[in-house]
Amino acid sequence: MQLDDEKKAFHFAVYDAVLQIPAGNVTSYGHIAYLIGRPQNSRQVGSSLKHLSHLRDVLNREGASLGEVPWWRVINSAGMISLRENGEFEQASLLRQEGVSVSERHRVDLDEYGWFPDDIE
Predict the structure, then answer these.
(1) What is the CA radius of gyration of the chain?
(2) First to last CA, the chain
(3) Residue 108, SS3?
(4) What confidence tier does 117 reach under pLDDT thresholds 50, 70, 90?
(5) pTM metric for this prediction
(6) Residue with more model confidence, 62 or 72
(7) Looking at residues 54-78, what average pLDDT do you find?
(8) Helix, strand, or coil (residue 99)
């Protein structure tokens, strides 16, 4: 997969923002998009996280030093884990390991666990 500089910058910004979510908290795809200055690109944030393994390898080959990106801390704006080929069960498990309460319907209370800063470093 070839990435131009703009796409590389977008993916790196997404991963950098996700790395700042504290353990035991969640945020939304839309809020990550907002934090990186691309509020209209929440779906692309989801795609970036979906392809994290491959894209992280591409970025690291080009000089980035991205380690484990806590993708599981990003959920949809309704407070639900997005459904995808059983990945929601893994995501729920990882969140529970961090002390986040996840309902059987894969819902998280954003008032209790949400992380929504106005900006990031």
Answers:
(1) 14
(2) 29
(3) strand
(4) very high
(5) 0.92
(6) 72
(7) 89
(8) coil
Q: In whole angstroms, how far apart are CA 98 and each of 26, 30, 43, 73, 94?
A: 10, 22, 25, 10, 7
Q: Output the CA torsion sign for 70, 9, 29, 116.
A: positive
Closest CA relative to residue 36, chosen from 26, 48, 24: 48
Q: Map residue 107 onto helix, strand or coil.
A: strand
Give the Cα separation of 80 and 68 in Å (integer). Answer: 22
Secondary element (H or E) of residue 12: helix 5-19
Domain ranges in the chain? 5-113
**Which CATH number fits the domain 5-113, given the four candidates 2.60.40.10, 3.30.565.10, 1.10.10.10, 3.40.50.150?**
1.10.10.10
Per-residue pLDDT tens digits for 21-46: 999 999 999 999 999 999 999 999 99
